[in-house]
Q: What sequence folds into this?
């Protein structure tokens, strides 16, 4: 007696017990493939705020910085459209972006992103606190505009992480504009995360950009990557979500959650270990 089953990932009809597939139907793996969507309860719009917050909760009882990185990318790997990430976003991405900010102690970002995206202070308080998380900017040059919204439109002072080699006059201007300017001996991930640790800012949300992310990958400092895959092909010259010096070892990550909304995938990967 023969029986057939349907492979959930592609719908191909598979003959049992031979396992032979109707090869005209598709090419796929027989084992190890799980259907993440559609499944009941995975549609983002069906998930309430508290369940979503629990899904993205940081590990409890952190005794040092835990680095969560958040990016949105097109399907073909573009990190921006016309130099900014806004063209990739969707309502679902914005919802998770806002939630991640409410769960964090500090938003860590590279100066290139601050300049490109005209950053301002976070609006909503961190859960359980009365103030929003500060924006901590990594900048070797201290080349930031003291009249930009980063300084003028914020409830808490931005933390400016820089170096002695940055022009003193520029550092002074940022401090006069309300920036909490910190001159570090080293501006690599060890120096930056050491400073956040010293301040007790353990739940770190890095919003990019690709240069800072590349440094974090090279230093094996990424604990989690939240990646929104926008249903777009962009082409062109846009970079990808990390860049840096060649020779960085690869880092294995494990899927922690996958949500979808309107053809957008919201993926969360944690370091494997
Ligand atoms: N799709 C997304 O989710 C997303 C997210 C973020 C950014 N983006 C896009 O990414 C682009 C910006 O890319 P980017 O690579 O320039 O961004 P970036 O990583 O934010 O900025 C790089 C800059 O950060 C500073 N920096 C970072 N690490 C440093 C280190 N270890 N030592 C000294 N300085 C350091 C330097 O600033 P100084 O030059 O001041 O020294 C460097 O030029 C924009 O188009 C933006 O829209 C997209």
A:
């Amino acid at each position: 007696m023969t029986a057939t089953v349907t492979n959930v990932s592609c719908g191909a009809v598979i003959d049992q017990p031979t396992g032979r597939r109707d090869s005209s139907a598709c090419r796929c793996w027989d084992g190890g493939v799980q259907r993440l969507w559609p499944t009941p309860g995975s549609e983002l719009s069906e998930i309430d705020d508290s369940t979503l917050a629990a899904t993205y909760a940081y590990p409890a009882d952190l005794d040092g910085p835990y680095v969560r990185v958040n990016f949105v990318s097109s399907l073909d790997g573009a990190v921006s459209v016309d130099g900014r990430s806004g063209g990739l976003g969707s309502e679902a991405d914005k919802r998770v972006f806002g939630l991640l900010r409410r769960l964090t102690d500090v938003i860590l970002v590279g100066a290139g992103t601050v300049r490109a995206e005209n950053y301002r202070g976070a609006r909503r308080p961190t859960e359980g606190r009365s103030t929003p998380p500060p924006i901590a900017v990594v900048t070797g040059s201290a080349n930031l505009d003291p009249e930009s919204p980063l300084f003028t439109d914020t409830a808490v002072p931005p933390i400016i992480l820089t170096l002695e080699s940055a022009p003193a006059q520029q550092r002074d201007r940022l401090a006069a504009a309300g920036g909490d300017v910190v001159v570090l001996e080293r501006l690599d991930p060890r120096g930056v995360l050491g400073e956040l640790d010293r301040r007790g800012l353990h739940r770190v949300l890095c919003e990019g950009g690709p240069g800072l992310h590349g440094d974090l990958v090279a230093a094996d400092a990424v604990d989690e990557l939240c990646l929104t895959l926008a249903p777009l092909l962009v082409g062109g010259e846009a970079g990808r979500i990390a860049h840096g010096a060649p020779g960085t070892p690869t880092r294995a990550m494990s899927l922690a959650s996958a949500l979808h909304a309107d053809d957008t995938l919201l993926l969360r990967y944690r370091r494997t270990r």
